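To assess whether ligand presence alters the predicted conformation, the chain was also submitted together with farnesyl diphosphate. Input:
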Amino acid sequence: MKPALNPQQNEISIPAEANPMSGPRHVAIIMDGNGRWAQMRNRPRLFGHHAGARRVRQIVEACPPNGVNYLTIFAFSTENWKRTQVEVSGLMKLFQRYITKEARTLADAGVRVRFIGDRVRLNDKLVELMDSLESMTEKNDKVHLTIALNYGGRDEVARATKRLAQDVASGKLDPEIVDEETLPKYLDTYVLPDPDLVIRTSGEARISNFLLWQSAYSEYEFVETLWPDFTAEEFGALTSKYGNRDRRFGGVKV
Ligand code: FPP
């Protein structure tokens, strides 16, 4: 089923789920290539980020028809602060604008929005908008959209470890019972299933500090398409391809 799609329209149309049982339930995306997309058009990098932001809606809409319940997207990494001040402040403004503009549409479409990452370095206005979008959509469950903003996998594990250590120090947690089920409860993603499929656009084959703990057994797809050109059709093709994978989680098929 093709989702009703029109990036110019200010409404999102999420069709009923047509769940291909073998498809990925949780897809995570490293949205790469905005800068190159803009440079190819002799435009500033921010032009590419704006085009990239418009793509997000189409991919959210493409989730239910492809049986995807969880979509996690990498919007800004803990390393992205190293970019020029113009690009960083332009991206921060873009996030504020995106939330302000898309909030009602996402809420009405049944999308539950969450943010992961460290909010401490983000400006107060942006954090306020993030909090309000999270509470506005908290009862929705058609698509769980998680936006990673000032997110880094190592940073997340470090922050989780700090909280875990504080619980041990205060006597709330017995260190003897700490195992691989314990740490995920302290991660930003504690309510989310692990991603089944991680997609990275733009031809780079790197994880770049994204969902390090959570993607231990994920399948990966690295595609050449630059993020602003990534279509719902390509997303659908990658989720179908995933259905043919043989995931053994380190075991063997009996
Ligand atoms: C990587 O491309 C992209 C980013 C660092 C920003 C991602 C942001 C968006 C897609 C837009 C906003 C998202 C939301 C949720 C509103 P790059 O700049 O590294 O591209 P390059 O590798 O070609 O330089």
